[in-house]
Amino acid sequence: MNYSWNWGVLFQSTGVGDSTYFNWIVTGLGWLLVIAIVAWSIAFVLGSLLGIMRTLPNKTARAIGTAYVTIFRNVPLLIQLFIWFYVVPNFLPAGLRDWWVNDLSASTSALVSASIGLGLFTAARVCEQVRTGIEALPTGQVNAGYALGFSTAQLYRYIILPQSFRTILPPLSSELTNCVKNTSVASLVGVAEIISQMKTISEYTQSTIEIYTYVTIIFIVINICLIQFMNFLEKRLRIPGLIAGDK
Asked: Positive or negative, the Cα torsion across 88, 94, 98, 99?
């Protein structure tokens, strides 16, 4: 293969001031982390709420949770991001729409749209994990709680949720890493995150293999760190005899 290797490409000057391509990668990594943190916060809070709703005795709450999951799990993430970036702003109230279009920079509006879109998409998946964790608990515990005079709210707060969240830590780890990896789709709506920076550097330098290798390593390192952190939580919070615990 007639290819000129250049593993030092990240430390070459971009021609703009004193910046190097490494600075571009760091900037893209910063955008990636912001999107991932905001999206995961939305996904965890909303997904947990919807997962609880899907297990409540109230039929309306279950119907709302089921409808949400049905819609957001079956529409591709890319389409959802396009809807949030191109369609939803047109239906905002006039004042809010003017602020969105005129006052916010293009990068900020793209960041907000990508974070919301990814967060709502991931929330549907987190919802199913939470629902599964709740339904996996022995029904005898629920019946015993009601027999002791617990209300539904007290039952969830003191008995169901403390156990179910600990048993679903392994699948939540997968959803967390998926959320980080899915931030790469944000580049398609104009966010200058690490994938967007990678494409730009590749076009400027023609060092495609080296740049793709570096970015792949960055994703691997981030996700390994997240997995190790989640494994630490699993060991600290494990419940003997249940999914995440020792027998």
From this structure: negative
CA-to-CA distance for 100 and 109, rounded, in angstroms?
A: 7
Three-state DSSP class for 191?
coil
User: If DSSP codes are grouped into helix, strand and coil, which group holds residue 20?
Assistant: strand
**What is the chain's Cα-based Rg?**
22
This prediction's pTM: 0.89
What are 78-130's pLDDT values in tens digits?
Answer: 999 999 999 998 888 988 888 888 888 888 888 999 999 999 999 999 999 99
Strands (E), 101-238: none
- CA 12 to CA 206: how far, in whole Å? 13
Cβ-based burial of 143 (10 A; exposed 0-12, middle 13-18, buried ≥19): exposed
Query: What is d(CA 62, CA 51) in angstroms, rounded to the nearest whole number?
Result: 9
Cα of first residue to Cα of last residue in the chain, in angstroms, is 55
Q: Is 11 helix (H, G, I), strand (E, B) or coil?
A: helix
